[in-house]
Amino acid sequence: MDHTMKNRFIALYVENDVGVLAKVSGLFSGKSYNLQSLTVGMTERDDVSRMTICVSSDDVTFEQIKKQLNSMVEVIKVLDLTCVPVCMKEILYAKIKNLDHDGMDAVFRIAETFRVRVKDIGIDSLILECMQTERKNNELVALLKQQFHNKVEIVRGGPVAIESISTTDSK
């Protein structure tokens, strides 16, 4: 067993009922598991939601987490996505404020390089909309913070993932 702490991903199918999200997140806080992100949304079925969970843990703890999730009544299915090919993206919005003309040009160049959309624009500010991998979003955030310091406001959603059809790993 590997005792290295690393990010691991779980897809969780749950009953779409009031309180299920609280129970799942309560499991993590109650056991002091390091929950990195939790994204939840509807599936093709109205009565089923799918959660994408990222947890930082070692192998032993990760196995405990999966067992505890499987034992919850509201949980329909637990999928370990850590070592399988998946399509995974994370949404991120970056607002960059108080820009002069050169700063505005620089943000447009960054947006073009990272292939992200300029979603909204004002006289001295703009908002970028990014749907990239977590790694790519981390790189974008680091660059924006480096170049624009305290002029940057970041809002991120957790990753959403689905198992790939082909064997190509798309993380």
Note down, in words, how this protein is organized.
The protein is elongated and about 55 Å long. It has 2 domains: 6-83, Alpha-Beta Plaits (2-Layer Sandwich); 87-163, Alpha-Beta Plaits (2-Layer Sandwich). The strands form 2 sheets. Strands 2-3-1-4 form a 4-stranded antiparallel beta sheet. Strands 6-7-5-8 form a 4-stranded antiparallel beta sheet, covered by helices on one side. The chain is an alpha+beta fold and 171 residues long. The protein has 4 helices and 8 strands; from the N terminus they run E-H-E-E-H-E-E-H-E-E-H-E. Strand 6 (117-121) and strand 7 form a beta hairpin. The mean pLDDT is 90. Helix 3 (101-114) runs antiparallel to helix 4 (134-148).
Write the layout of secondary structure elements.
Elements lengths: L5 E10 L4 H11 L3 E9 L5 E10 L1 H12 L4 E6 L5 E11 L4 H14 L2 E5 L4 E7 L1 H15 L3 E12 L8
Antiparallel strand pairs: 1-3, 1-4, 2-3, 5-7, 5-8, 6-7
Helix pairs in contact: 3-4
Provide keyphrases for this structure:
four-stranded antiparallel β-sheet; 171 residues; 4 helices; elongated; Alpha-Beta Plaits; 8 strands; alpha+beta; 2 domains; single chain
